[in-house]
Amino acid sequence: QQQQQQPEQKQRQTLITQVAPSGPVQPDYSINKVNVAFQGGKLVLCTKQDPQGITATPGYVIRVVLPGVTSVKEIDVDLSDEELELTVLDTFHLETCFPQPIDDDNVTATFIKQTETLELLVRMA
User: Per DSSP, what are the bridge partners of residue 76?
Assistant: First the structure.
């Protein structure tokens, strides 16, 4: 009784390895010119003339997509009249300048959990 020899199977080597980024990465973001006005003590998006007769002023809406972030407590935002710096520890880091100076004393920030997006409304100075 002869035992049939099977060809020796070679172990395959992985040619592609996934490399995690070293350090924080820049998140996707957008800065769009909009009209803003104060309503209920905070800035809101609006048209040039809203129904209550409040005149809007030029501003920006900044949207930053932060995958994996579940709470606004994880986000550190530093604003000046000319730039925005945003950090999520060991994950994201963003530094950008505004096209025109902003009023950094009047900012409304909203974190939208469903889309993992931070939205900032600012008024131009």
Answer: 87
